[in-house]
Design a protein that fits this description.
- The chain is an alpha+beta fold.
- About 50% of the residues lie in helices and about 20% in strands.
- The chain is built from 27 helices and 24 strands.
- The strands form three sheets. Strands 1, 2, 3, 4, 5, 6, 7, 8, 9, 10, 11, 12 and 13 form a 13-stranded mixed sheet that branches.
- A hairpin with a 4-residue loop joins β20 and β21.
- It is globular, with a radius of gyration of 34 Å.
- The chain starts with a helix and ends with a helix.
- About 0% of the residues have low confidence.
Length: about 800
């Protein structure tokens, strides 16, 4: 019987090659989107799921409140982990670790110069100082050594296989005892390899290429000072603490105990701020932007949204199958009638039709794997490098099997039930069962549903693109054209007794292609920031304000074109500090007019007072997701400023390249052997909106897929309608109807359906877009004309799709359609 069913299925599918091809293509596109989304979602949710007792593992994080401004930090003060390990009950294991990025690693060679390995810039390449407690919480598979012995003494290092192979060309116990030299900007460590662990197989945000003994830091007075091991109020995101709590312990109560204990150690601070501690679940680390600290964070709502998109696209493809199957159902009426007359049961007919659907689905699945691979290549800039199509993974094949069965069921059950319900006597008489009124209702609902989803995608794509364009083009309150930025090499950051950067800046100023040069600690707008609690007198009362600071030389204001509203630029001085503040800070200090702030003072917590000498127009110091912060520009000695800002003369791209080549030559003469890496300031601003840029690309892709699949469904419905009304079209043509009139007759109904879909899609899209735009402090308007443009686009696409089949039906020979009469 199975062989007979297979033969019938193959013959039927081959006879209806066009319909089969459309079904395979629609399902393949929908399934490929689901595969890519599954791979991405599965990848992101696989982080830190493997440690034993993962539900009892937390990261201790620090919460702040500066006046009215909240603050968050993934790190803790360095002395805290050891203190809570001794004094807080309910903690099973406490593991402190300190992230470090070395400038280079040197591998000594007998009688030869050492091999130098420059440090990678990615945060995933950071090494950590820790001890055996770390591996009690996050175990590793040891090839040589052990947690108890390999991290017990100063200057020990444990390597992963990957790093051992890089440094020594092998990853075996033979590397134990080999030495390394780790060079940072403030220290050089002579290290001995004491252990070797396997490369991590499971994904984790706490997987590092090397582990240095914590005793390396604690045994040295200088390093204890550098890492703040005696500073209870200093918080550094690189100094973190993992905790495994005892079974049944309450993390919120433990956090209160920790806060109380640390308050007793740190004492009162003269700065008006509050600090407390929270326990962040391990499962939350990969998804919480609040404590990102340089980690690549996944956005859970986006992942859920992508999963919903995948379901919608698969549903759209299944709807297509239903529409096309029912559109051609009448062609199989006599076949079904004969088989019923010869004794076939309804269950056999349904099984036959579901088998045909499963066969189409299997073919679509094979094509979808190839399409998914192409999709991963197209989206390579958007998705993490670890997302890949690995055909050796059982979970992938289980997912694919589930999708194939689900799709076959969704797409095949309704046509199977519908066709198997045909009455033999009517089908053998040639009665067109689809003439009965009301039978097209479900298909109308399906096509409306398709275009509701498609038009929501179209509207979303238009508005997301518009918001991105708005953010990139908005006036930020300063110049950004033809400005290049680059930084002093890391190891020179804190060297203030040398004048290389000052000399280099002077030499760059003399180049004909350079208009202006300024030294600063950062650009006017950036993802990072520095802030300090400062006191101001408002209405005769002292008010604490969290002031965002940007340090620069006297050229900083003029190079970036800040608009000075009152006062003057700060004067050049190595000893006296002055402030130029923005309007927001002046208002928070209690001044209605910018001129009122001139001559007033802001006071640090240590009592140092700094005069306000100027007020500039408000400018955006961070992305447009956030409102403008109270900001102070402060003069500082050029020798302590690490960023070069170079404004080039207006000219051609070739002139820019020539000037940059000259700057590179001067750089190489100043900083021998250091890479010269520059960024155009407008590109730096654009990077702040990479997430939105990626969203635009994803939305456009999803919109294209939704439109494509929806048009296939529309094609199926117009095919069905033309088939149902074949004799009517023939009669109308004989009576003198023109092709234009017939096309209008067939198209009218479908355009109404698309228009109705727009009326349903527009309010839903408006609500979702309004919620999305609420995440931006500065945003574009929800303009009505963009909704109208989306609706018009959907109507034009639908009209084009319908017209092709309608024109074909209208041009058919009426003699053929009426000959049975």
């Amino acid at each position: 019987m199975f062989k007979n069913y297979l033969k019938i299925a193959l013959r039927t599918l081959w006879r209806n090659r066009l319909t089969t091809s459309i079904n395979v293509l629609g399902l393949a596109v929908g399934l490929s989107a689901c595969i890519v989304i599954f791979l991405l979602v599965n990848y992101e949710f696989s982080f830190d799921r493997h440690p034993p007792d993962a539900d009892r593992i937390y990261r201790l994080v620090t919460e702040f409140k500066f006046g009215d401004d909240p603050g968050h930090n993934a790190g803790v003060s360095a002395p805290i982990p050891e203190s809570i390990r001794r004094e807080v009950t309910g903690l099973e294991t406490v593991a402190a670790f300190h992230q470090e990025s070395f400038e280079q690693i040197e591998v000594p060679r007998l009688g030869q110069a050492p091999i130098l390995f420059p440090a990678a810039k990615e945060s995933s390449s950071h090494m950590i100082f820790t001890d055996a407690q770390f591996f009690k919480i996050l175990p590793a598979e040891w090839i040589a050594g052990s947690p108890q012995t390999s991290l017990a003494k100063p200057n020990q290092i444990v390597l992963t296989q990957r790093l051992a192979e890089r440094y020594f060309g092998e990853a075996s116990s033979k590397v134990l005892g080999r030495t390394l030299r780790a060079v940072s900007y403030q220290d050089t460590l002579e290290l001995t390899v004491s252990g070797l662990v396997k490369n991590a197989v499971e994904r984790s945000d706490f997987s590092y290429p090397a582990y240095l003994s914590l005793a390396t830091l604690t045994s040295s007075k200088k390093r204890r000072e550098n890492y703040g091991f005696d500073a209870w109020t200093n918080t550094n995101g690189a100094s973190q603490c993992l905790i495994k709590i005892e079974p049944g312990a309450n993390p919120d109560q433990l956090a209160q105990k920790v806060t109380k204990l640390i308050d007793s150690h740190s004492g009162d601070s003269s700065i008006e701020w509050k600090r407390w501690f929270s326990f962040q679940p391990l499962s939350d680390v990969h998804f919480n932007q609040t404590y990102a600290n340089g980690l690549r964070i996944a956005h859970k709502p986006t992942l859920y949204g992508l999963a919903a998109v995948g379901v919608f696209l698969l549903l759209l493809a299944s709807i297509n199958f239903v529409n096309l199957s029912t559109a051609h159902a009448s062609q199989r009426g006599k076949e079904i009638g004969i088989r019923k007359t010869l004794g076939s049961r309804r269950s056999h007919l349904i099984s036959q039709l579901l088998g045909e659907t499963l066969l189409v689905t299997v073919v679509a699945v094979l094509f979808s794997i190839a399409l998914a691979e192409l999709g991963l290549i197209y989206l390579s800039e958007l998705i993490p490098s670890g997302v890949e199509l690995d055909l050796s993974q059982p979970t992938f094949w289980l997912f694919l099997l589930a999708m194939a069965l689900l799709t076959a069921l969704l797409a095949g059950i309704y046509p199977g039930l519908l066709i198997s319900r045909f009455m033999p006597i009517l089908t053998l008489r040639g009665t067109n069962l689809f003439v009965q009124p009301g039978k097209i209702g479900l298909r109308r609902v399906l096509i409306i549903s398709q275009f509701v989803i498609a038009q929501m995608f179209i509207i979303g794509a238009l508005f997301v693109s518009r918001q991105l364009q708005y953010m990139i083009q908005k006036d930020l309150g300063f110049n950004r054209e033809a400005i290049v930025t680059f930084r002093v090499p890391t190891k020179y950051f804190w060297i203030s007794d040398q004048n290389q950067r000052i000399t280099l800046a002077d030499r760059i100023r003399k180049l004909s292609g350079v208009k202006q040069v300024s030294l600063a600690n950062q650009s006017p707008i950036s993802s990072g920031y520095s802030s300090s609690m400062m006191n101001a007198v408002r209405n005769k009362q002292k008010v604490a304000i969290n002031v965002y600071r940007k340090d620069g030389d006297t050229q900083y204001l003029s190079l970036f074109g800040f608009h000075l509203l009152a006062g003057r630029n700060f004067a050049e001085s190595d000893t006296t500090s002055e402030l130029v503040i923005n309007e927001t800070l002046a208002r928070q200090m209690g001044f209605r007019q910018p001129t009122e702030a001139i001559g007033q003072f802001l006071q640090y917590g240590n009592g140092a007072q700094i005069p306000v000498v100027g007020v500039v127009q408000d400018f955006h110091g961070r992305s447009l997701h956030e409102s403008i912060q109270p900001t102070a520009l402060m003069n500082n000695s050029p020798s302590s400023l690490s960023q070069f800002n170079v404004r080039l003369q207006t000219g051609s791209a070739q002139a820019f390249d020539a000037t940059l080549a000259q700057i590179k030559q001067l750089w190489n003469e100043t900083y021998h052997g250091e890479d010269f890496s520059y960024t155009f300031f407008d590109d730096e601003i654009a990077k702040l909106y990479n997430k939105e840029r990626n969203l635009v690309k994803l939305t456009n892709l999803a919109t294209g897929i939704a439109i494509f699949i929806s048009c296939l469904g529309l094609f199926g419905l117009v095919t069905f309608t033309a088939e149902r009304r074949t004799k009517e079209i023939g009669i109308r043509k004989v009576l003198g109807a023109s092709v234009t009139q017939l096309v209008a007759l067939l198209s009218k109904e479908f355009l109404i359906l698309v228009g109705l879909a727009f009326l349903l899609a527009a309010p839903a899209a408006w609500y979702l877009l309004r919620e999305w735009l609420n995440g931006f402090a500065y945003r574009t308007e929800l303009s009505w004309w963009l909704f109208a443009a989306a609706g018009t686009l959907a109507l034009l696409v639908a009209l084009l799709t319908v017209s092709t089949q309608a024109i074909r039906a209208a041009n058919a020979n009426p003699v053929k359609s009426l000959k049975v009469e």
